[in-house]
Design a protein that fits this description.
306 residues, mainly alpha
Length: 306
């Protein structure tokens, strides 16, 4: 991939518009990661409390996502949603998000939600490192310092080395790497395809390639709650990726990626309400640092736009 970014505005009005777009993109990212938290909570509930095979949960998540996308966007936009200018890149994007989800769903079966999401918070650092050489979107030292400070908050939550580390964190780490590349790819494709096309292709690798694995372990649900959670996985997965794609359309990857930290709050809340996971003082302290770094990044954007 190369620097396929639209030209940056140079007039004061253009600069104001650009920073307003950044604020919009940040808001969209915050909404996206909050929606994704509900996806993880539903997946964990299905795998843990309802004993649905993890491979089945992964496949259903993409199958229902793909079906709902075709039903909604296919009906509205019809053939326009399948006309990609770079179909190979779309397949790579779709494959990356499928692999990311697979790794993540295996991890959340064995770990608490706040544990998996904090490991996932390596993503902004990886995106910041990759966006420069791949996209030409370099990070200033203030933003990089704020991102790193947010990650210190993550370390306060996880406290590596204290109480042992579960082997499932390796899956969270693998998901973090693949998600960083997915984020970079999504930003790249924002310059080549419409958000509708990007959304249309997001779920199809997981739906198609995951079919043999999902069907091999398939257990037919016998209650409405399981079917309802299947539908919820697909719906929230689609909505979350739609918001994510729009976010990367309006701002560079290093600007919006750090706001994945916001999901720590929704993960802690869902972990407590759904699974009874009580956050520790370390979790709350780390969350405060994460929020502080996010507020500083938002302040920087507002100051640049004023």
């Amino acid at each position: 991939m190369n620097k396929a970014r639209p030209g940056s505005p140079t007039t004061p009005a253009g600069e104001d518009a650009r920073h307003e777009n950044h604020i919009l993109a940040i808001a969209l990212m915050c909404c996206a990661v909050t929606v994704f938290s509900t996806v993880d909570a539903a997946a964990k509930y299905l795998a843990d409390d309802m004993s649905v095979p993890v491979l089945q949960v992964i496949w259903v998540r993409f199958l229902f996502h793909a079906l709902l996308t075709v039903l909604i966007f296919g009906f509205v936009f019809r053939r326009e949603v399948v006309r990609s200018n770079k179909p190979t890149h779309q397949f790579v994007r779709s494959l990356l998000v499928a692999v990311t989800t697979g790794f993540n769903f295996v991890a959340i079966k064995y770990l608490q939600l706040d544990q998996t999401v904090t490991i996932f918070f390596l993503t902004p650092l990886l995106v910041a490192a990759l966006a420069g050489p791949i996209l030409g979107e370099w990070v200033g030292w203030r933003r990089l310092l704020a991102i790193f400070t947010g990650f210190i908050g993550v370390l306060l939550v996880t406290r590596p080395g204290f109480g042992g580390i579960h082997w499932a964190v390796l899956y969270s780490f693998a998901a973090t790497i693949t998600y960083a590349f997915y984020s970079i790819h999504t930003r790249y494709m924002a310059a080549h395809d419409t958000p509708e096309v990007n959304l249309f292709y997001t779920a199809f690798a997981g739906a198609l390639l995951g079919a043999p694995l999902g069907l091999a372990v398939w257990e037919w649900p016998g209650d409405a709650l399981t079917w309802g959670l299947f539908l919820w996985l697909g719906l929230t997965g689609m909505v979350g990726h739609w918001l994510l794609i729009l976010s990367f359309k309006y701002a560079p990857a290093p600007v919006v990626a750090p706001f994945i930290y916001v999901s720590l709050l929704s993960m802690i809340g869902l972990g407590y309400v759904v699974f009874g996971d009580v956050p520790t003082l370390w979790t709350l302290a780390g969350g405060a640092v994460v929020i502080g770094s996010g507020l500083y990044l938002l302040y920087r954007e507002r100051r640049l736009s004023s």
